[in-house]
Amino acid sequence: MNEVVLDASVVLRWAFHDEADRDGATRMAEALAGGHLTASGPPNFLLEVAAALAVGVRSRRIDRPTADDVLAALSRVSIDEDDPHGFATAAYAFALDRGIRVPDAAYVETARRSGATLVSADRDQLRAAASVGITVVAIGDVPAREP
Amino acid sequence: MEETTYLTAAQAATRLGISLRTARRRIADGSLPSVKIGGAVRVPVSALEPPPARPATAAREAAARYGIETDEAYIRRWNREHWPDSWERLLERRRAAFAELERLSKLTKPPGGPHDTVDAMLNQVRDEFGARLLQYLPPAPKDDS
After folding, report:
1. A101, B93: Cβ pair inside 8 Å?
2. Which residues of B touch A97 (CB under 8 A)?
3. Which of A4, A15, A131, A138 has its CA 20 to 30 A from that of A116?
């Protein structure tokens, strides 16, 4: 079975309907629901999603009860979170080496540790991951399901 | 050689084909039965083995023994209590979660502009979080290569 690290930019597309490249995120969800993929993320994964949802609630793109339900549903998707031990320091070093942000680097570090494919909407993050030999997929490059 | 009655979390994870972290999480939330032996958490082998009869049949037999009505709710509860969490059950949960997310996504508003997309929201969070984290972490290890 193929293992992927899903960046929060992919996961958040599940919760917001009118987003660019949402088809690719939907294909990922279908593969996870069908048992064709396993997914993992860094220890800060759900915290990041929660923080982005809070931004969405404040900007009124999503109301509070819906955001609460989104978080609850995401916890049932069961994305494995990596062991936090030593994780922050590794992500931090990678972020400074490659000029990307620490939270972005956390996903790269997860993929590096597990040998998984990194799937993201963030091209800078994907470029940094590819530079250290990680297989990457841009969510915009995932083909939509044929009607 | 007689089989061990109790397994460590790692042994149970291997038998179930799940990660150690997932096994620990399921032990913590109770979906994978466990006991404490001398302070160590152990998973009974019986929790990983299917019941002797087909679940529905076994449930009905147990229900009949105790004079309980054999309805679907009872069978579901019996299965949940007697069978360990399985890959199939995980996928079932996952499918339900995605259906719920699809429903919820239709309750959200379209972005008001580029500043309001999920990527923009995430960027705001990461800029703030990344900057704060750098204040607290120790210096990066030196690269000796």
Report:
1. no
2. 140, 143
3. A15
Among the listed residues B32, B26, B135, B106, the one whose alpha carbon sits nearest the alpha carbon of residue A102? B135
* Other beta carbons less than 10 A from residue A37's beta carbon: 19
Q: Is a pLDDT exceeding 90 seen at residue A52?
A: yes
Q: Whole-angstrom Cα distance, residue A27 to residue A18?
A: 16
In whole angstroms, what is the distance from residue B98 CA to residue A74 CA? 8
pLDDT digits (tens, 9 = 90+) for A57-66: 999 999 999 9
Tokens 């930019």 -> residue: A9
The whole-angstrom separation of Cα B100 and Cα B97 is 5
> How high is the ipTM of this complex?
0.84
| Helices A45-58 & A64-77 angle (0-180, nearest 10) | 160
Residue B75 token pair: 């069978």
Residues of A in contact with B29 (CB under 8 A): none
- pLDDT of A23 over the 50 cut: yes
Q: How far is A46 from chain B (nearest CA, A)?
A: 12
Instruction: Give the sheet arrangement for strand B40-44, strand by strand.
Output: B6-7, B40-44, B35-37
Asked if B56 reaches chain A (Cβ–Cβ under 8 Å), the answer is no
Closest-CA residue in chain A for B97?
A73
Taking a C-beta distance cutoff of 8 angstroms, is the pair A111, A122 a contact? no
Instruction: Tell me the C-alpha to C-alpha distance, in Å, between residue B121 and each of A123, A133, B41, B134.
Output: 16, 29, 41, 20
Tokens 């590819």 found at: A130
Q: How many degrees, rounded to 5, is the angle at CA B133 between CA A69 and CA A95?
A: 100
Give whole-number Cα distances, A85 to A42, A88, A144, B23, B132, in Å: 11, 8, 37, 18, 19
3-state secondary structure (DSSP) of residue A40: strand
Which residue type is seen at B26? R
